[in-house]
Amino acid sequence: MASLVAAFSGVFTKPRALALLQYTTVRYRRKPRWLGTAKSKLFRVPERRKQIEEEVEELKRLHNNYRTQMKAVRNFLRDEVEAYKLVSRAGLVLQSPEEEEAEWQEALRRNDEWNQQTAAVREERLAAERAARKEFILERLVLKEQREMSKQEEVEAKVRAEKEQSKTFITRENIDKAIELALVQPTSYNFALDRDGNIHRANNSSTTDNSQTN
């Protein structure tokens, strides 16, 4: 057993197994036609299959019925076409010029009537479209006017607010008064906050402001 395993292990080594896996054969399902007939079948004559007598008679009967029915259909259609041609020719021959003119005038009258009906429907549709478009434009104009009015009100409100704030602005006229007020009431931003929110001023470290900041 060990010798057999050793023999097979020597045959199916890794490079050889890899080569066998990569090797593929190409085979045709049928012989290509360009190779021609095989020599063994070159002079072979296939034997004709014999049919049963009853089957042959039944096939003949069915074929005869089919041919008879198709011939009848063709003859019927041919007669119909010939009859239609005769009727058309007779109508053309028997129709007088006055009748042709009357038929033409009737066709024109009917065409004009159809055109009038189509024009009435078209005018009604166009009128409805114009009314809808006019209403849409009016709505857009009203909305635009409302937006402009609201925008104008916002601008006026901003202008009034700026005018109110301008009273506290420092100008050339009140700059001396503002300087005197700043000297009399100095503002010191040198302070600190503890965890409880108490303010500790730098000028008086012993005192504590118990006011809470928001």
TrEMBL record:
From which domain of life does this come?
Answer: Eukaryota
Per UniProt, the keywords (alphabetical) are:
Mitochondrion, Ribonucleoprotein, Ribosomal protein, Transit peptide
GO CC terms on record? mitochondrial small ribosomal subunit
Q: Name one Pfam family in it.
A: MRP-S26
Chloroplast: present as a keyword of the record? no
* Location of the protein in the cell: Mitochondrion
Family of the protein in this entry: Belongs to the mitochondrion-specific ribosomal protein mS26 family.
Any idea what this protein is called?
Answer: Small ribosomal subunit protein mS26
Natural source organism: Anopheles sinensis (Mosquito)
